[in-house]
Amino acid sequence: MGISNEQIERINALARKKKNGGLTAQEQEEQAVLRRAYIDSVKSNFRSQVENIKLVDDNGKDITPKKLKNLQKERGLRE
Q: Total structural domains in the chain?
């Protein structure tokens, strides 16, 4: 789930309008929906990055937590 550049531009436009004069009830609702979509997108991207991490100690030994290794195996990211 991602968010388009147009949606980000609309979020910013609504933020500027709110700061300069205020939003209508419909614009406030639109802003809330767009913000939620943006936050969900950021959380999803962050989760994906964390789930793809492999931790290695100074000696080159894989020290990735077992829970993360299992999740990676389920998703086909690890053998």
A: 1
**Positive or negative, the Cα torsion across 66, 1, 42, 23?**
negative
Is residue 79 domain-resident?
no
Q: Which domain holds residue 44?
A: 5-74
Token pair of 27 as six digits: 């614009």
Q: For 53-68, how does the pLDDT look when each residue is reduced to its tens digit (9 = 90+)? A: 889 999 999 999 999 8
What are the structure tokens assigned to 50, written together? Answer: 């964390």
Q: Which pLDDT tens digit goes with each residue over 3-50? A: 999 999 999 999 999 999 899 999 999 999 999 999 999 999 999 898
